[in-house]
Write a structure and sequence with these properties.
The chain has about 325 residues and is α+β, with helices and mostly antiparallel strands. The chain has a domain at about 10-145 and about 245-325: Bira Bifunctional Protein, Domain 2 (BirA Bifunctional Protein, domain 2). It has helices at about 10-25, 75-85, 125-140, 150-155, 165-175, 180-185, 190-200, 255-270, 280-290, 300-310, and strands at about 30-35, 40, 55, 70, 90-100, 110-120, 145, 210-215, 230-240, 245-250, 295-300. Strands 1-5-6-11-10-9-8-7 form an eight-stranded mixed β-sheet, with helices on both faces. It has a three-stranded antiparallel β-sheet with strand order 2-4-3, with no helix packed on it. Helix 2 (about 75-85) packs parallel to helix 9 (about 280-290) and helix 5 (about 165-175) runs parallel beside helix 7 (about 190-200). The termini are close together.
Length: about 325
């Protein structure tokens, strides 16, 4: 094991300059930088996300015999929305985030997110602002936009909003990617996500960033359902040179709908023999006070810097990756 950083001094200076440029970008738009805690008493219920847990003995209502679970944030989303519900205006944050996942070329379990929220924006307005930031940092050409449904139709001649499990498995087999675990998978969402990541992603965003929007409502997360087509949610992602860069929403503000989604996540977790997660009660309390109309986005800052510096591995843009921390 080496004690030395994987981020060179040359790249450390370039990273610092990119961060300075990002802060200037938001300063020019009167979007205010905030800081929120990395720890929380609640966490995400998403079946595909796992937070890193720690134990704390000194909360006022903690039992001396039993420590309280605290969770390192998978993103600062819940805390930032609590700020918005309390009356804050447009805000951004450059924050450490943590996910209990395997390290790889594009992922370190501890990473840096750029997350921001724009009051009065819908997801189309926010996509335009994200595009402006990408052009400023990456000096790239104008990004493109397309719907999730249209990508499947154009690239695979399949409508993902209508396709059956049998059709999706046949599509995977036609691309020589069928494996045993897929043949027994009953969740169409898992099949769609596999097709998107393994077959579609390599074909998009190769010349300019590609925004994909209107994901299936079953993949809505914390986004509103589209009123024009209730089969889809007002959610977007952006891909460039094989990298998933951003995940954004026209934010769900309905407390009942959001609570139901959290409960459905935990029901699905139970069915999959995964541990249920504590719903963030402070976030729910904030929603009960009223979250203003807004759109928000999380951008993987380390990945953005990888693209800006044209390097191949996330270890080249962070000082000490998990193996050296």
């Amino acid at each position: 094991m080496s004690w030395q950083p994987t981020l060179s001094w040359e790249y450390a200076q370039k990273r610092a300059q990119i961060l300075q440029n990002i802060r200037q970008f938001f300063d020019e738009r009167n979007v205010i930088e905030v800081e929120t805690p990395a720890l929380s008493q609640g966490t995400v219920t998403d079946v595909h996300l796992d937070a890193i847990t720690c134990r704390y003995n000194f909360l006022c209502d903690s039992s001396p015999e039993k420590a309280t679970n605290l969770y390192l944030q998978t993103s600062p989303e819940f805390h930032m929305k609590r700020l918005l519900a309390s009356g804050y205006g447009c805000i951004f944050q450059i924050a450490k985030a943590f996910r209990h996942e395997e390290a790889g070329r594009f992922h370190n379990p501890e990473f840096t997110l750029l997350e921001w929220y724009r009051l009065g924006f819908d997801h189309f307005m926010l996509m335009e602002e994200v595009a402006q930031l990408l052009k400023a940092v990456l000096d790239c050409t104008e990004p493109t936009q397309t719907t999730y449904q249209q990508l499947f139709i154009d690239l695979l001649s399949t409508d993902p909003l209508m396709a059956t499990r049998v059709q999706l498995l046949s599509l995977i087999k036609d691309h020589d990617k069928l494996s045993e675990w897929l043949t027994v998978e009953q969740d169409n969402d898992i099949l769609l996500q596999f097709i998107f990541s393994e077959i579609i992603e390599p074909q998009i965003g190769n010349d300019s960033p590609c925004f994909v929007y209107n994901f299936p409502r079953s993949q809505a997360s914390l986004a509103k359902i589209c009123p024009q087509d209730t089969r889809v949610a007002e959610r977007f992602e952006c891909y460039f040179h094989g990298v998933e860069l951003v995940n954004g929403f026209n934010e769900l503000t309905d407390i009942d709908a959001q609570s139901k989604r959290f409960q459905e996540d935990n029901t699905k977790r139970k069915m999959l023999s995964l541990p249920e997660k504590p719903i963030d009660k402070n976030f729910i309390a904030a929603l009960s006070q009223g979250l203003p109309q807004c759109s928000g986005v999380a951008l993987g800052l380390d990945r953005l810097i990888m693209l800006a510096l044209k390097v191949e591995n996330i270890e080249q843009v962070v000082s000490f990756p998990i193996a050296r921390c």
